[in-house]
Design brief:
The complex is a heterodimer of chains A (about 425) and B (about 300). With about 425 residues, chain A is of the alpha/beta class. In chain A, a hairpin with a 6-residue loop joins strand 5 and strand 6. With about 300 residues, chain B is an alpha/beta fold. A six-stranded mixed beta sheet of chain B has the order 6-7-8-3-9-10, with helices on both faces. In chain B, a hairpin with a 2-residue loop joins strand 9 and strand 10. In chain B, helix 9 packs parallel to helix 10. Classes of the chains: A alpha/beta (about 425), B alpha/beta (about 300). At the A-B interface, helix 1 and helix 8 of A face strand 6 and helix 2 of B.
């Protein structure tokens, strides 16, 4: 054990003393914390400049309604109020349709948008009032520089539909003034589940679900895990390759057994990950507390993060060390690092489906694969609903077993490959070394 | 007691027999020369002694104990190719490698060796700033700083200028005087002749020579003549009873085939050119090495 600790201490100091590590250690939380602060500061900031929108109404129903709705909205929202900044005013310009050459009219309006005279122009089709079942005809067209992400498009569509519905009711002989709240909408509030306080026996109110809690927290903790693996497990590949190619390994192995050498390197990697993550998690929690968002990251998730991280660094570290031991030069190491990285980065491709439906069979199954548990199970645990209590423990057993297996197999490969000069890192060689040791 | 006992050790890599039923003993306190051509199995044998790799068959004992991991703490090792962490400072790297073999602070020993091998100005510099010769000295200190009773040196003088080679040679002899056993793998036959008490030669994994230099040379008798002549090697062409002429430029070495007396030979040479020096001697270790492992011997073995 003394020798393992000596190797671990050297590897740890060799990394943490580098300028790159120190710079990364400071910069990463600054960037993460900074982006949180910027997001909080600019959460409700929108562009307050007036938006002029031209409307070409071929239905004869929508244009006037848009003018009235814009006037009401401008009177209500273009004044800054407590907790809300000033919103942009919508100025509607009604344009007579050019029936002889509608394409030319659209082109001229497009030029006005390009010249910044207009924010957008809207074209309402002649059959918008009764569109029927024909889905090929375009009844409401919104043209702007970035129409897909333009928030004004949603407002225009909402007002246009309200005007059209009102007209349809009138045509049906229904007086809409009799039902003043006919078009009033109600919000579907996203709420959590109620529970009983075990101490007092009282039923606690359901908390309103937060978008940040639902998406931000799981993604951040998962990316932090990935960052720690890239910080501490991945460098094992190049470090081991260098120790082999520079014949350092032969000198070290004159004093320590190959398994002790690899174990020391893994322990060094774990220590590096602990150092970096302690800083990141510490700064992150402090930043959340300062911003009043401490509820986003429960301490139980932080505890699971450290458990999974220690195991994942050892698991992936053994993989990278074994692959590094098989490489003879930086070119081989570079090409092999991509292959070895694949299982580690695969969970990033599953990020969205898992976070959107954390308790689907797919998400549950993938998170129970030991290679991906440290990232996917942790991410699921960080979602507001959490996961069934048994799942993290079952997954943990799998991760522990896989980590031990990786260290054992990695150790067998490492032992042979670290002294093998000139033998390329091919799959059949890995299999042979792993079986024969 | 022997520092190392190797008995019937065999190591194969697939179809290649790297070491074949090798047995020898290194007496404690001796300097033991380990010679052989490239690929003859020297490094494999050394790695087995250090427990870096395991023998397929046979037994290896270090100071009477069957080889296991802890035994390697009693062996210092300088490999042929230098292996030092380039980004570490000289003092740190020495304390690290020494610390792998021995517990406790090694600061005093490190300082003493740094002073002794004239590296004081480089102690706090990174290894990557050192010349090849200085790196070699650092590698040597890394092997001896924990005071192992057995030192395995693989080409310890390569890359050293004569001044530094002398410094290292004196250090090795001083260690032997203090009781350290030294096993010395080298291609430099002159160094082996001068420094080693006993010499072992392996060829294609098998032992072909083992004994003191004198006993080895006695086996070949006085079949060698070293001459200096005005005519040089050209004047020695076609001499009867000469098996082989090795030209060193200023002097030539003749190997006799045993059919002719050396006195007759000098008479014939005097008839051809002026002979300025003539010495009948036993073959040098280099010559014996070439007889066993030179191209002619390789051809004979292959045939």
């Amino acid at each position: 054990m003394r020798k393992i600790l000596k190797v671990a201490r050297r590897d740890y100091l060799a990394t943490v003393r580098t300028k790159g590590f120190l710079v990364g250690l400071v910069l990463a939380p600054l960037l993460m914390g900074g982006s949180l602060i910027v997001m909080a500061l600019f959460r409700d900031r929108t562009d307050p400049r007036d938006r002029k929108i031209a409307v070409v109404d071929r239905s004869g129903v929508v244009a006037d309604a848009l003018v009235r709705a814009a006037a009401e909205r401008n009177a209500r929202d273009t004044v800054a109020a407590a907790g809300r900044s000033r919103q942009a005013a919508y100025l509607i310009e009604v344009i007579r349709p050019n029936e002889r050459d509608p394409a030319l009219q659209r082109l001229l309006l497009s030029d006005r948008v390009r010249a910044k005279e207009l924010h957008a122009f809207v074209e309402v089709g002649p059959h918008a009032l009764h569109p029927g079942r024909d889905t090929t005809e375009r009844h409401l067209a919104y043209h702007s520089q970035n129409a897909v992400l333009d928030e004004t498009r949603g407002w225009i569509a909402e007002q246009a539909n309200a005007a059209l519905r009102r007209q349809r009711l009138l045509e049906a002989g229904i007086d809409t003034s009799v039902v003043p709240d006919l078009f009033q909408t109600i919000e579907g509030a996203p709420l959590g589940l109620l529970s009983r306080d075990p101490a007092t026996g009282r039923i606690t109110d359901a908390l309103k679900s937060d978008e940040k809690a639902a998406i931000f927290a799981p993604m951040v903790i998962m990316l932090l895990m990935l960052m720690m693996l890239m910080f501490s497990a991945m460098p094992q590949l190049n470090a081991t390759m260098q120790e082999k190619s520079q014949r350092i390994a032969e000198v070290v192995l004159g004093s320590v057994r190959p398994f002790e050498f690899m174990a020391g390197k893994l322990l060094g990697g774990v220590a590096i990950a602990l150092t970096a993550s302690a800083v990141y998690v510490g700064v992150g929690l402090y930043a959340l507390t300062v911003l009043g968002l401490s509820g986003l990251m429960p301490l139980s998730i932080v505890a699971w993060f450290f458990v999974y991280m220690l195991l994942a660094v050892a698991m992936y570290g053994a993989l990278f060390a074994a692959v590094g031991a098989a490489c003879n030069d930086p070119i081989e190491a570079q090409s092999m690092s991509f292959v070895a990285m694949l299982p580690m980065i695969l969970p990033t491709f599953l990020l969205l489906p898992v976070v959107m439906q954390p308790n689907s069979a797919f998400a549950t199954g993938m998170s129970l694969v030991p290679l991906w548990t440290p990232m996917l199970m942790l991410m699921r645990q960080a979602t507001p609903g959490g996961v069934p209590a048994w799942q993290p423990w079952v997954a943990l057993v799998g991760v522990v077993a896989t980590t031990l297996l990786f260290i054992w197999v990695g150790g067998r490969v490492f032992r042979v490959a670290i002294l093998m000069q000139g033998t390329p890192p091919k799959l059949q060689n890995f299999v042979r070394w792993a079986i024969r040791g | 007691m022997n520092a190392i006992d190797i008995e019937h050790v065999t190591k194969t890599y697939g179809p290649v027999v790297a070491v074949d039923d090798l047995s020898f003993a290194v007496p404690e306190g001796s300097i033991y020369g380990f010679i052989g051509p490239n690929g003859s199995g020297k490094t494999t044998t050394i790695r087995m002694m250090l427990h870096i790799i395991e023998a397929d068959r046979g037994a290896i004992r270090v100071f009477g104990e069957t080889l296991r991991s802890a035994c390697t703490d009693r062996i210092g090792y300088v490999p042929e190719e230098r292996g030092l962490y380039r980004k570490m400072k000289v003092r740190e790297v020495l304390e690290y490698f020494g610390g792998l073999k021995r517990n406790g602070s090694l600061r005093k020993e490190v300082d003493a060796w740094i002073e002794r091998l004239d590296l004081a100005d480089w102690a706090d510099k990174k290894v990557e700033t050192l010349s090849k010769g200085m790196s070699q000295k650092v590698q040597f200190i890394a092997a001896v700083v924990a005071r192992p009773p057995l030192l395995v040196l693989d080409e310890p003088f390569s890359g050293l200028d004569p001044v530094n080679a002398d410094v290292l040679r004196e250090a090795i002899l001083a260690l032997r005087a203090e009781g350290t056993t030294i096993l010395f793998s080298t291609h430099d036959m002159a160094v082996a002749e001068r420094m080693c008490d006993t010499i072992l030669m392996i060829f294609r994994g098998r032992k072909v020579l083992d004994g003191t230099l004198e006993s080895i040379q006695n086996r070949y008798g006085t079949d060698t003549v070293r001459v200096r002549t005005d005519g040089g090697a050209a004047a020695l062409d076609g001499l009867r009873g000469v098996d082989r002429v090795t030209d060193f430029g200023q002097e030539q070495e003749l190997r006799l085939d045993g059919t002719r007396d050396a006195q007759d030979l000098v008479g014939e040479m005097l008839g051809r050119t002026r002979v300025t020096s003539f010495e009948v001697m036993r073959p040098s270790l280099r010559d014996i090495f070439l007889r066993i492992a030179g191209p002619a011997a390789e051809e004979a073995t292959d045939a």
